Structures are given as structure tokens and as C-alpha cells.
Amino acid sequence: MPAASLADAELRYLPYWVEPGVADSWLARLLEETPFEQPRVRLFGREHPVPRQVAWYGDPQARYRYSGLLHQPLRWTSLLAEIRTLLQAETGQPFNGVLLNLYRDGNDAMGWHSDDEPELGTEPVIASLSLGAPRRLDFRRKGTTRIGHSLTLGHGSLLVMSGSTQHHWQHQIARARRTSAPRLNLTFRLIEPSRA
Ligand SMILES: O=C(O)CCC(=O)C(=O)O
Ligand SMILES: [Fe+2]
């Protein structure tokens, strides 16, 4: 397990969680049926569109704050509900929402952050399913700038982050100039509405 080298983090990476044919059909369906948006964020007093497209699905009470905005969930589609059921069985954890991030090509990215919003609780379990073009996920310890660990998340792979990972580490998806194909990432989460 690559994760064994990462102190104070719990990562479980399953490169072939779903077979490629299933991953292909999930990707095609999700690209077709998802009403993606490109939120704008204020950074240093200026508004920018985030460099990717986003959709938030979940149970009605699972409102979630990301990119500085509180998002009302879209209703579970049959496919997302099916994937949630599979992931709950895989991890033994309940999930009430899923964030979809579409990286249209290698120019789309996600900056350094931890998934440590209060509504996720103190030791969140986040199940991250990747479909489409492989992209590198980097980790760095909070308060440092050196990349401490990287994983290439491939088509049909599952990464489960748990324990104190979000407390001690940040992660990013850096730009990848040679990538021209899209990648869709789905992070299944459990929101505790009382903490939002
Ligand atoms: O695209 C990824 O693999 C990472 C997504 C992520 O970090 C997030 O949604 O918080
Ligand atoms: Fe994240």
C-alpha cells in the first residue's frame, strides 16, 4: 500500500475498484446527465471562476459549503444512488452527499486544501471515485510546501481518505499540461447538518 508511508493519514487506494467497461458507461452517463456549474470565488478581493466544473448531490438536509458558498443538494439520480450503495458496502460508512468535480482537461485543477469544513466532523471518511483521464493527487503536510506523497488516480479507481488525514494534510490536483481528456471525480461525504 503506498499509503503506509504517510504518517498521520489514512489512505486506502484501490486502483481497479470498478472494471473499465463499467467505468466507461458511468462516465458517459454522468457527463450527459449532470447539470455542472462553474462557481465564482472571491480571492484577494477579486472574483474568479473556479478552474473546473462542479455539482453537489445529496439528501435534502445535506447542504454543503464549498468555494465559499452554501450549496443546496440536487436530488440523487438512480446512478449516483447506486454508486453510493456500492461505496457504503465497500467502506461500511454512510454517505449523504457527493461532490462531482469535472476537470475538462489538464488546464482544470484544484488548489491545495483540506476537506475540514465543520459540517464534515472531525475525522471524515471521504470516498473518492475517479473516472476518465488519470490525474495526479498530491499531498503535503499542513504548514509545509514540499509534496510529501503523490498518487495517480486512474479510471475506475477508489481512494478512501479517513482518520486524521484532513487534520494533518492538504491535497491538490495540479494542472497537467499534457492531459487533454476529461476527468470526473466523485467524493462521497457525510454531512452533519447541525454543524453547517
Ligand atoms: O479530484 C480529486 O481527486 C480531488 C477532489 C477533492 O479534493 C475534493 O473534492 O475535495
Ligand atoms: Fe479535497
TrEMBL record:
Keywords assigned by UniProt, alphabetized: Dioxygenase, Oxidoreductase
GO molecular function: dioxygenase activity
Keyword Oxidoreductase: yes
All copies of domain Fe2OG dioxygenase, residue ranges: 94-192
Name under which the protein is recorded: Alpha-ketoglutarate-dependent dioxygenase AlkB family protein
